């Protein structure tokens, strides 16, 4: 069931040879992840990527379009908790849907060959 969803991903054929697709490998993925979480403007990202020391042939628009093709994972939900007493800030409860978390874990490419749903018996003595 979950593996069918994993294989239905249009990019799953590329993940067989490269777990970091659409990036070329770990190093490019790490730089892209840092840049996307850095809060830098598109112009600053382009300026960084144009440095001679940086060997990645990416530009900010291409970086963002590659990132959009990645699986986003479970979505965060939140709820404001009412309180009897006055507080300096709101009390907010954040959570993810547990089923979305399980689906996300089971669909992760690293676990593709690691999870087996077939029943088997482990014997502790020779019979």
Kindly report the spatial arrangement of strands forming the biggest sheet. 1-2
The poorly predicted ranges are none
Strand content: 5-15%
| Strand segment count | 2
Q: Which radius of gyration do the C-alpha atoms yield?
A: 21 Å
* Spatial shape: flat
Number of H/I helices: 6
Please summarize the sheet with the most strands.
2 strands, antiparallel
The H/E string reads HHHHHEEH
How widely separated are the two ends?
35 Å
- SS-based structural class? alpha+beta
**Average pLDDT reading:** 77
Helix content: 25-40%
Characteristics:
127 residues; alpha+beta; 6 helices
List the helices and strands and how they pair.
Elements lengths: L1 H6 L4 H4 L10 H12 L4 H8 L10 H9 L7 E6 L9 E6 L1 H9 L21
Antiparallel strand pairs: 1-2
Overview of the structural elements:
This protein is of the alpha+beta class. Helix content is 38%, strand content 9%. It contains 6 helices and 2 strands. The chain has helices spanning 2-7, 12-15, 26-37, 42-49, 60-68, 98-106; strands at residues 76-81, 91-96. It has a two-stranded antiparallel ribbon. The radius of gyration is 21 Å and the shape is flat. The mean pLDDT is 77.
